[in-house]
Write a structure and sequence with these properties.
single chain, 405 residues, mainly alpha, Growth Hormone, Chain: A, 81% helix
C-alpha cells in the first residue's frame, strides 16, 4: 500500500526549480547528440565516430571531476556550483555552435563534461541532500521524474530547430536556455545553508533510520564496492542499448518503423517505474528498492530472447526502461539511506566515477562486438552484465540482512 505523497516543505521550491533545470540540462547535453550528430556530420564532413568521440570525451571529463564537485557541494551547498555549471554549459554550447574545426568542437564538449557534473543528477541529488538530509529521498524521486521528460521534449524541439535554423543555431538556442532559465533557477531557488533534521515522522521521513544505515568500517566499504560495480554494470547496459536499441531490434527481424515504435516504449517504462516508486514504494527499504531496480533488467532481456515477437520486444523495451528509471532513483536514494547524508556529495561522486567511464565506453565497445560477432553476442554480453549486477545486489542484500538479525 502506498504512502500519502508529499515533499518536505523546505525542499519544495528547490525540487521544482531543479526539475525544470534538469529537463533543460539533460535535453541540451546528454540527449543532444542523438538529434544533432547527423546534421553536423552532413554539414561539416566530420566523421560520425569523431562527433560521438567528442561526446565520449565529455563523459570521461565528467568521470574525472565528479568527486571534487561532490566535495564542493558537501561543503557549500549546490547554489554556487550549479549556477557556475549553467554558465559553463552555455559557454560550451556556444563554442560548439561556432566551432570552425573538429578540435574546437572537442574543446566545447570537454567544457560541457565539467558543466554536466555541475548541473545534472549527482549535483542535484547532493544539493537536495545538503538541504534536507534523509528527507531528500522524496525530492530525489520527484527530480528523476522531471528528468525523464528531457528526451520527450528536446528531441522533437531539437529537430524542429534544426529544420528551421540549422544545427549551429540549435546549439545557440540551447546555450540561451541555460543563461535565461537554468542560471536564474540555480542562483535564486537553491538553498545555501544545510538543513536540520526533521522530527521523527515529519513530511515523509522515516521515523527511524533503517538498520542498513548503521553500516560502518569494513561492512561499509564492501557495500560501497558492490553497489558501485552493480550500478556501473547497469549504466553500461543502458548506455549501450541507448545507442544501439533500434539497430538491435532490426537485427531481431523487426522493420525499422516497428523498431522505432517499440523503442519509444522505453520512455514509457522509465516514467512508469519512477512514478511507481514515488506513489507506492516510498516505504521500501533501500536494498529492496535496489533489488527491484536491478532485477528488472535481466527479466527484460528474457522477454526478448524468448522470441515472443512484438510482444516480447515491447516487454523488453518497457522493462529495460523501467529498470533504468528505477536505477537512477536507486543511485541517489540508496547511498543516502544506507550510509546517511554526511559526505553524500563526495560519496555519490566516488560511486558515479566507474559508471560514467562505463557510459562513455559502452557505445563503442558494443559496436565493436557487433562488428566482430553480431548483435546476439553483443546483447548477450549486456545480459551477462545485468545478471552480474543483480547477483551483486542480491549478495549485498543477504549480507546486510544477516548482519541485522
Amino acid at each position: 500500500m502506498g504512502q500519502r505523497f508529499s515533499l518536505p516543505i523546505r525542499l519544495r521550491a528547490a525540487t521544482h526549480a531543479l526539475g525544470v533545470a534538469q529537463i533543460i540540462g539533460w535535453g541540451t547535453t546528454i540527449y543532444a547528440p542523438a538529434v544533432l550528430a547527423s546534421p553536423i556530420v552532413t554539414d561539416t564532413g566530420w566523421s560520425r565516430s569523431a562527433v560521438f568521440a567528442a561526446f565520449s570525451l565529455s563523459l570521461l571529463v565528467g568521470a574525472a571531476t565528479v568527486r571534487p564537485v561532490g566535495r564542493l557541494i558537501d561543503s557549500f551547498g549546490g547554489r554556487l556550483a550549479m549556477t557556475a555549471g549553467s554558465g559553463l554549459a552555455a559557454l560550451g554550447l556556444l563554442i560548439a555552435a561556432v566551432a570552425p574545426s573538429l578540435p574546437v568542437y572537442f574543446i566545447a564538449w570537454a567544457i560541457l563534461g565539467l558543466a554536466m557534473r555541475l548541473i545534472l543528477y549527482e549535483a542535484a541529488f547532493a544539493t537536495l541532500t545538503f538541504a534536507g538530509g534523509r528527507d531528500a529521498r522524496r525530492a530525489i524521486s520527484v527530480l528523476t521524474l522531471y528528468g525523464g521528460f528531457a528526451s520527450t521534449i528536446f528531441w522533437p524541439v531539437g529537430w524542429a530547430l534544426i529544420e528551421g535554423f540549422g544545427w549551429r543555431a540549435t546549439f545557440a538556442v540551447f546555450a540561451a536556455l541555460h543563461l535565461i532559465v537554468c542560471l536564474p533557477l540555480h542562483a535564486f531557488f537553491l538553498p545555501t545553508a544545510p538543513g536540520t533534521a526533521a522530527p521523527a515522522g515529519a513530511d515523509l521521513a522515516p521515523a527511524a533510520a533503517p538498520p542498513e544505515a548503521a553500516l560502518a568500517g569494513r561492512e561499509r566499504t564492501i557495500a560501497l564496492v558492490l553497489l558501485t560495480i552493480a550500478f556501473a554494470l547497469l549504466l553500461y547496459v543502458n548506455s549501450a542499448l541507448s545507442a544501439h536499441f533500434i539497430d538491435t531490434l532490426v537485427a531481431f527481424g523487426f522493420s525499422s518503423g516497428t523498431a522505432v515504435s517499440v523503442a519509444a516504449v522505453r520512455g514509457v517504462g522509465q516514467f512508469a517505474g519512477r512514478l511507481w516508486e514515488i506513489l507506492f514504494a516510498g516505504g521500501l527499504a533501500p536494498m529492496t528498492l535496489c533489488l527491484v531496480a536491478v532485477g528488472l533488467a535481466p527479466l527484460a532481456f528474457a522477454a526478448l530472447f524468448l522470441g515472443a515477437g512484438i510482444v516480447g520486444a515491447t516487454l523488453f523495451a518497457f522493462g529495460q526502461g523501467a529498470s533504468n528509471g528505477l536505477v537512477t532513483i536507486a543511485r541517489g536514494v540508496v547511498p543516502l539511506l544506507l550510509f546517511g547524508p554526511a559526505g553524500y556529495g563526495l560519496l555519490v561522486g566516488t560511486m558515479a566515477t566507474p559508471g560514467l567511464i562505463a557510459m562513455a565506453l559502452a557505445p563503442a565497445v558494443h559496436a565493436a562486438m557487433v562488428d566482430l560477432w553480431g548483435h546476439a553476442i553483443a546483447l548477450t554480453v549486456c545480459l551477462a552484465a545485468a545478471v552480474v549486477g543483480f547477483l551483486l545486489v542480491v549478495a549485498l542484500t543477504a549480507r546486510i540482512r544477516r548482519r541485522a538479525r
